[in-house]
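Re: the 107-residue chain
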Amino acid sequence: MLQLMNQLGMMLRQHTYEIAMMVMATLLVIYGDEVNGLVKRLVGKYPFIVRALVFVALCAFGYGYLLIGFTPILASWIYAIPLHLLGPAVLITLLVLGILAERKKQL
């Protein structure tokens, strides 16, 4: 059984960066609406052009920076997981993301 878990871990280890990006992108989708709402409340009193520029900057640069900046950090954490635990860790992470999405009415 341990050998099978290690083989699964070896297959997943090759895709550590993609797994980390998937987790980060999913979190941004789940919580992006709340961030947008907060920014909307902060800049709601400004003229349309300012609100539009802030929104574009948030989406293009803010979310992009979060995705590009934190993905390597998360990937290094995932890479540190022992091979035999990597498969269960990824599965549990996907389940937790699904539960979070369900609670936020994303599913």
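DSSP finds four helices and no strands in the chain.
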